[in-house]
Design a protein that fits this description.
The protein is mostly beta strands. About 0% of the residues lie in helices and about 50% in strands. The strands form 8 sheets. The protein has a 5-stranded antiparallel beta sheet, with no helix packed on it. The protein is globular and about 55 Å long.
Length: about 400
């Protein structure tokens, strides 16, 4: 288990023993130097798979807190890593025309990817993602971590600090991983997975700048992305899914429905509440699909797939609940529904969402999200990126696998 603690003087007398820990401290680099080196090594291996985004023949694969791998997927049987965007603190991706929007910890970058081998920064919005604060010095960003094994007195006063603040120390039991810091028209966008926390609709970018708020950015001019507002958006927000003139915002306690009839001023006409759990959501014109799973960061005990009516999304009601093992990301193409669930991806005939029929299950380890379109299924897992052909959904064929190294 990883521990990140702000120690106070009231703990100073509570010495009960010692524990072996690994300590991480951040290394800061000037943001100007980082942005100047955004064009990284195309052959850099994928270390930790995060968000996935597709547009045209390209896959944009987030490498958590490291950057974005640009993958030429013209031939899904042989995807080619063609570029790497070196963006420390990156977790989110959205594309409008030839401009890619990405977070760099608390900052929003607008990046011209017309030439993916030589991208350039067109604009920035500093300090937008307030939930990923990295210190009082706005000119620097965390680019690496110093690691040191140490012995800590359990219950004793330790070096003072807090997550993301200069001087912070991070403790993890030995063996634990380093903690993460919290070709058409110019207006076309791509496709994100169900766990996305940022989306583009028209001239506006919508994102979760911190877990209790919804932020709106005008991106009409990519050289000057302008924050319109950040508004209270409910508790523990996790994902955003666009549906016509609405945003479906998944949270640990329900799905918040926002109308964007006025794009710059989202309003919340309704919400669908469920028990405490992690909560990605997708929808089509008639139904919404919500997966709930228990977890250390989510609380609750639910592991299920909920189907909601969506003909009038502002009046969404629960139609059916299906038991699951530990579901996470999901995707839909026509009458096929793909659900990441525990040890694999379950494939359902969803012609009648109140009577889902499982067709098959893909045996992949720890899947987290999917994108499905035009008989091509992309699955991101802790081990890498899988691609499948589901022309025959009862006999799905693996096309390729890009492994984490």
């Amino acid at each position: 288990m990883m521990v990140s603690v702000l120690y106070t003087a009231c703990l100073k007398d509570r010495v009960k023993g010692t524990e072996s820990y690994t300590m991480y401290t951040p290394v800061y680099t000037l943001k100007s130097s980082v942005l100047a080196a955004i064009n990284g090594n195309a052959n850099q291996p994928v270390a930790q798979v995060g968000q996935i985004y597709t547009k045209g023949n390209f896959i944009y694969l987030n490498d958590v807190n490291a950057g974005i791998h640009v993958i030429d997927n013209s031939d899904p049987t042989h995807p080619v890593q063609t570029a790497f965007l070196n963006i420390p603190g990156n977790m989110n991706i959205a594309i409008r025309g030839n401009i890619l929007y990405a977070d760099m910890y608390e900052d929003l970058l607008a990046i011209d990817i017309s030439n993916p081998h030589q991208v350039r920064i067109t604009g920035t919005l500093w300090g937008f993602f307030t939930g990923r604060y990295t210190g009082s010095d706005s000119n620097h960003v965390i680019t690496s971590w110093n690691k040191k094994d140490t012995i800590v007195q359990v219950g004793a006063l330790a070096p003072q600090g807090w997550y993301g603040v200069p001087g912070t120390v991070f403790y993890a039991l030995n063996g634990a991983p380093v903690p993460a810091a919290s070709e058409a028209a110019a207006t076309t966008t791509g496709t994100a997975g169900s766990t996305a926390t940022m989306t583009l609709i028209g001239d506006y970018l919508y994102a979760i700048p911190e877990e209790h708020s919804l932020g709106v950015v005008n991106v009409t001019d990519s050289s000057q992305p302008a924050k319109i507002q950040t508004t209270a958006g409910g508790f523990d927000l996790e994902t955003i899914f666009p549906l016509q003139n609405y945003l479906l915002v998944g949270s640990k306690e329900g799905v918040f429905i926002y109308s964007i009839a006025n794009p710059g001023q989202p309003v919340q006409p309704s919400e669908f509440k469920h028990g405490t759990a992690c909560d990605p959501v997708i929808a089509d014109q008639d139904y919404a699909y919500v997966t709930l799973h228990e977890g250390t960061n989510c609380g609750g005990t639910a592991n299920e797939l909920d189907v909601l009516s969506a003909q009038d999304i502002t009046q969404a009601t629960l139609l059916k609940t299906y038991p699951m093992t530990s579901p996470s990301g999901l995707g839909k193409d026509g009458s096929l529904l793909f659900v990441c669930d525990g040890p694999g991806v379950r494939v359902f005939n969803a012609a009648d969402p109140t009577n889902l029929q499982q067709l098959t299950e893909l045996n992949v380890s720890n899947p987290s999200d999917v994108i499905a379109a035009n008989h091509l299924l992309m699955v991101v897992t802790t081990g890498g990126l899988y691609q499948y052909d589901y022309t025959d959904p009862t006999h799905i064929t693996q096309l390729s696998y890009l492994a984490v190294k």
